Amino acid sequence: TVAEALKAIPKLAGCRLVTLKENQGRARVRNLLVSTSTGDYLLFVDSDAQVYDPKFLERYLALAQRRCVLCGGIVHSDTMPSPDVSLRYRYEKQCEKRFTAECRNRHPYAQLRSFNLFMPRTIAERFPFNERITGYGYEDTLMGRDMARAHVQVLHIDNPLLNTDLETNPRFLAKTEEALHTLAMLNREMEGYSSLLHLHQRLCRMGMSGCMRLAYRLWGTLLRRHLTGHHPSVTLFQCYKLLYLNAILEPRGQKKA
Known about the structure:
single chain, alpha/beta
């Protein structure tokens, strides 16, 4: 069980378990871990990641002397675990085709993901996760933007971890909506680092904000019902994200962003 695994951590050589009384948010927790770490290099790995290649650490260490930020990537099983997680699974599997190391290196800063991230401690201390982000999403993308401005080298390599814990469709949709609220909050800061935000801005400049707002009112509930079912469409998921983002931004007076 998870409880038994946690109890075993302090017994491992060089390991310790840090527990908090309450959830302080992903950004603050990661910054806390950086501040309490002692090594020269840091490896960020999400708790639902699985190492399936014995050379995983070897590949990172072979490039450590470059003193840059290394992103290894993420992959998923070739078999869907359950129809209950079909939305996240189908979305991630479709993204894998565009998230090879070669593709990620075309836009290295916008593709930075803390799921599997290796960097010198000095860089991690210089570029902390933005603690204004208390909800889900985009804290790593914002870090990538800050690194881009400071001309820190970010290199994407094929050294992926396996994502083993996919959320159910309703839970993933809720997390997506939470992330879109984060994106809306950052809005101007994320220009050039979010393809969804870029598409929304283009459509608004074409005068489509009202049409998107109407579409969300007419079909939002139906889309949600479809996406939380067992046969969700990734295309409709992308459409829903666009309509939902517009619904958040338009009342704030951002429709001409």
